[in-house]
Amino acid sequence: MKHILRVMALLLIAICDAQQCNQTFLGELTDFHDGTPIPGATVYIINFDRYTTSDENGKFKINNVCNGILRLRISHVACETKTFKIDIKGDTFKALTLEHHIETLSEVSITGQKILKTTTTAQESLLKEEMLQQYSALQLGDALKEIAGVSSINTGNAIVKPMINGMHSSRLLILSNNVRLQDQEWGIEHAPNVDINAAGQISVIKGSGTLAYGGDAIGGVIIMKPKPLILTDTLYGQTIISGQTNGYGYSVNSRLNKSFDSGWYVNALGTFKKNGDFRAPDYYLTNTGNQSKAFTLQTGKRSFETGFEVYYSYLNNDIGILRSSHIGNIADLVDAINAQEPIITEDFSYDINSPRQDVTHHLLKASYFKRFRALGKLNLQYDYQNNQRFEFDIRVGDDRDKPALDLNLQTHTAMADLSIDANDDYELQVGVLGRYQNNFANPDTGVRRLIPDYDKYDFGAYITSEWQLDNHWLFDAGFRYEFTRIDAKKFYLESRWEERGYDETFGDIVIEDLGTQLLTNPVFNYNNFSASAGVRHSINSKSQWLFNYALATRAPNVSELFSDGLHHSAARIELGDLNLVSEVSHRFAATYQLTTSDLDLNIEGFYNRINNFIYLEPTGVEQTIRGAFPVWEYNQALANFYGFDFSFNYQINEALSVNNKTSYILANDLDNDRPIIDIPPLNIYNAINYQNDNWKPLKITLEHEWFFRQNRFPDNNFETYIASRDETVLVDISTPPPAYGLFNLKSDLKFNTSKRSHLTLALNVNNIFNTNYRSYLNRLRFFADDLGRNVMLQLQYNY
């Protein structure tokens, strides 16, 4: 046995000698971002369990290396630690790279409470994940009202459209995981088809300060970003269960995230919400229940240098519309306006009957990125969206279950952009986009189609730049060109065609005369230019000024061009105008920000002059075979919008703080010398917050919201003759409701259930004193009061 061991030892020595461990490895460390040397990096030689460092030129040497695989782990301050495997064959030289710009790594790591803004000089506000979780059972538009200057325009309580400085719908871009939503956002009664639980952070950019997303964002951009990835071997999740007394509603949301050291990850999210009839302080709001189902799946592989992702989301909303808002004719409208309570009130029910909406949205995205050394980052993306909208009117007989509106919108988008950021003094971004969209309006509804079949083509190209002039001054600028082509097929009643003078101005687009109807083929091309420029001046470490100018151009949407007939869910006749041209907005904005240890202060002012501003307003009444209905028409005018948003948070002591948000907007139709319709009134929000970190911790917030009466509004009242009563009456659809104030309470407790999990219990009460009120920006204000008291309980478990 001893002889055998001696022989094995001699063989081992011989093998070691044969390896010739006298090779030299020379490494050179440079910044992947800009190619500069990285001195003082720590190099851990895993094979030998020893360390060395790089010199002032980024070089280091390792002697007495064996042929084979050399493993190194290299780290440096503000760099991502990387492990390298190097094949040694004799003396070897290898250039190695690290990324020395740690802020670009935010997309692949958790950085505590740090969140990065999207812009540098535009007016931007952020909603963090903690705030979004409070609105898990509600809508995107509800959560965004936490930001000064952001309100909503509603159809009841379930259809909530965000409004930024008085603008909504097509003037706002909504992006979910870098995909611009295409979900028939034209009308007030079309809410965004997104699940708020899919967002880990939301940025709200006021005005068109981000040309990379589109040049038509006259009102602003809403960017929903998913939770940041943790590229390490881990499994974690979250479940939120909510219940509320108003509507006897409940919701369940659960997510699960799995990632690996290799860079692979998969995330899944599911949401279910259900509410019955909601209640005003004195009565139930019959047929206002809703049900929502959502699912999201995200998977891919990512490292710092390259990565890809596949993302899918599904959302279905079934929404009841207040039964009393279904107007049969003008007499019903007059009675509804004059009545103190809804014409129809029934006991509570979870049933969702007509009138209602059933909307399903599918989104599929595939993306890829590649970083190039000493240059920047290339992004490629394709996304497909399918939006199916059914609107059900109250019908009888064989048509009882047939929708009055059946629209299917399909959108394909391909885009590419290159961010050139190798130089610390400036950054350049260029991008191109192509989009094809098809809308099919099903003729089998038995109802005249409000929106026609059409094909839409978009092409866009942009360039943006950013220069860091010195430690105090930063300047950015950009330019974007967009081409839009709309090719539609639409039937017009010959009487309507002649009434609007189209026989003289658009006679060449008629392709078939069917007697009482004309089949037309309107084709419109729009060439739109947008630009922006801004500057940020850092006065000191605590305060700064932002100045921004944005030129935005928006082509009219299909609803504004082609609407022609009775919109059943809105109970009004809507008329588009083929003569509409693109809106052109010139927006000037200034912001002052101050941040100290106990005070956060933000003051924003803006002025926006819009040529050819498109608006929808009532103009009269029209008799149909179903009765008389108000007529709403799209018009254009020169308009200006100006106002301010003010917010501050002051920390009185460790336990108490107070905050305020105040917003005021003025909007004028300069051509007709009158105010613009549907502008939010002055509103003031105040809150006092108590926090005790030594008790669970405990957080309690008492809020008060005051909404003034809107005294600036156009007089669109009209008179109409009601034959059944043999009288002429004034239909008052203009006068806003009185001012009102609401008290709300928010509270939560956090319990640590283990080292890696915790439970949060939240109790919120909205409209504590069950106040009767009607909001000027709720389309159903003519028929019923807004919501009464609502007590909400939420359990949030993180594991």
Describe, in plain words, how this protein is organized in 3D.
There is one protein chain. The protein is mainly β and 799 residues long. It has 3 domains: 22-100, Immunoglobulin-like, CATH 2.60.40.1120; 117-221, Ferric Hydroxamate Uptake Protein, Chain A, domain 1 (Beta Complex), CATH 2.170.130.10; 222-528 and 545-798, TonB-dependent receptor, beta-barrel domain (Maltoporin, Chain A, Beta Barrel). The two termini are 57 Å apart.
The overall number of domains is: 3
The number of helical elements comes to 7
Number of strands: 43
Assigned CATH class of the largest domain: Mainly Beta
Give the radius of gyration.
31 Å
> How far from one another are the termini?
57 Å
Q: Choose one word for the global shape.
A: globular
The averaged pLDDT comes out at: 88
What do we call the CATH topology of the largest domain?
A: Maltoporin, Chain A
Going by CATH, the architecture of the largest domain would be: Beta Barrel
Sheet with the most strands, sense and barrel status: 22 strands, antiparallel, barrel
Strand content: over 45%
Bin the helical content: under 10%
CATH superfamily grouping of the largest domain: TonB-dependent receptor, beta-barrel domain
The assigned structural class equals mainly beta
Low-confidence parts: 7-18, 102-115
